[in-house]
From TrEMBL:
Name recorded for this polypeptide: Sulfotransferase
Sulfotransferase domain: residues covered: 2-113
GO molecular function: sulfotransferase activity
Keyword tRNA processing: no
Keywords tagged on the record: Transferase
PANTHER family on file: SULFOTRANSFERASE SULT
EC number: 2.8.2.-
Record flagged with keyword Signal: no
Similarity section: Belongs to the sulfotransferase 1 family.
Organism: Triticum urartu (Red wild einkorn)
């Protein structure tokens, strides 16, 4: 929560935190950096070293990941901790979980009519890599 504006807690906002397997996050970051900054040729060794030292747009991976997980345990009505891998493996269940967390659980009619499956179908970009400049990421600090 330390990455959010100070007033977030007092406003009663709900927070959804999305965590990704660190290995996959590292590889994704490496590919993004090399595509976003052509000619820099960031190596896996250098990227790994930077990752381990906490050089990332959001600080050390484990610090913020653990911080949000702890917050989700302490305040489950305010912080939802999701894993990217869960979204990929069972997006329909995650839609249900997210709707409930946001205070708008799917009705029986919505369940029967396949609303969760429709959200999954319309989320075609799920797993699509970000293109540099599309607003989908922030570069490593070099």
């Amino acid at each position: 929560m330390s990455l959010l504006p100070p007033g977030m807690r007092s406003l009663g906002c709900r927070v959804v935190y999305l965590c990704r397997d660190p290995k996959d996050a590292l590889v994704s970051r490496l590919h993004f950096e090399n595509k976003a900054f052509p000619g820099t040729d960031l190596s896996m060794d250098r990227c790994f070293s930077m990752f381990c030292k906490g050089f990332s747009p959001y600080g050390p991976f484990w610090d913020h990941c653990l911080e949000y997980w702890r917050e989700s345990m302490a305040r489950p009505d305010s912080v939802l901790f999701l894993k990217y891998e869960e979204i990929k493996s069972d997006p329909t269940q995650v839609v249900r979980k997210l709707a409930k967390f946001l205070g708008v659980p799917l009705t029986e009619e919505e369940e029967r009519s396949g609303v969760a499956q429709e959200v999954k179908r319309r989320s075609r970009g799920l797993g699509k890599p970000h293109e540099p400049g599309d607003g989908g990421g922030v570069g490593l600090h070099r």
